[in-house]
Amino acid sequence: MATWDPQQYQRFQKERAQPFFDLVNRLPDGEVKTAADLGCGPGTLTATLTERWPHATVWGVDNSPQMLAKARTLPAQPRLHFVEADIVEWSPPQRLDRIISNAALHWVPEHQAVLQRLVGLLTPHGVLAVQMPNNHAEAAHRILRESTQQEPWRSVLADAEERFTLQTPRWYAQTLHSLGCTVQVWETIYYHLLSGENAVLEWMKGTALRPTLERLGQRLGQDGQTAFLDMYGQKLAQAYPAGPDGTLFPFRRLFFIAQRDEP
Ligand SMILES: C[S@@+](CC[C@H](N)C(=O)[O-])C[C@H]1O[C@@H](n2cnc3c(N)ncnc32)[C@H](O)[C@@H]1O
Q1: CA distance 173 to 171
Q2: DSSP label at residue 218
Q3: Which residue, by CA, sits nearest to atom 9 of ligand 1?
Q4: Which helix or strand (DSSP H or E) is residue 202 part of?
Q5: pLDDT at 162 over 80
Q6: Within a domain: residue 34?
Q7: Whose CA is closest to atom 20 on ligand 1?
Q8: Mean of the per-residue pLDDT values for the chain?
Q9: Structural domains counted in the chain
Q10: Each residue of 32-67: pLDDT tens digit?
């Protein structure tokens, strides 16, 4: 797994946070004593959950030491705990009333098994709420795929691709229903107006581009990274011209909320 750079990731903090709040705002009320944020990243959003549920103990779980180091700089709260663990291996000390995962589960394979496990961690009527990017048809991703499949990059990057896991909305609805949940699934396209120079490149550097850059660094050093960024950045600048109000970047995201029916 390529490393995360919290500073680069948080350059577009407002835009990246909006789907988290759109997800959490749709969660049912009710008494919440235990909650987890899986793939919590720098923890800023996790910390807001202690306000949303004032009687809850909240765990933020992530397997990136860099992200967790950032999370641990947040003001300490007695009901907020950050844990270094893999999403598919972490066992909470108690069953959970709410499990949130914002922009993280697509990095984890085998969603059938993962969802079965997560639903199994919920209390009766507990809720699993997930948001994942579904933007791979967008030009930024298409150009990245095309670029890495062309020489001189192809042979260097042959085995570098980190795969995203994403099933269809129908699949999530049916799978979660079959796991004994009442389900809502929806998609939203955000039209972000990003500020700064070659803003889409900067966005991609914080997330999907990391595995490519890391592999280029290992095999070709900084010169290889710079050459790739120049080529990719030029293509992105053409695909996403900056306007007077910023650079428009459409971003499609898939959401689901699954409430466990049975004890
Ligand atoms: C795009 S960031 C999202 C961070 C945060 N949820 C947010 O919305 O700001 C994805 C996070 O998922 C974490 N992650 C990815 N795969 C993981 C896994 N298998 N176990 C734990 N964390 C994982 C990464 O380390 C990263 O911090």
Answers
A1: 5
A2: H
A3: 41
A4: helix 199-205
A5: no
A6: yes
A7: 86
A8: 94
A9: 1
A10: 999 999 999 999 999 999 999 999 999 999 999 999
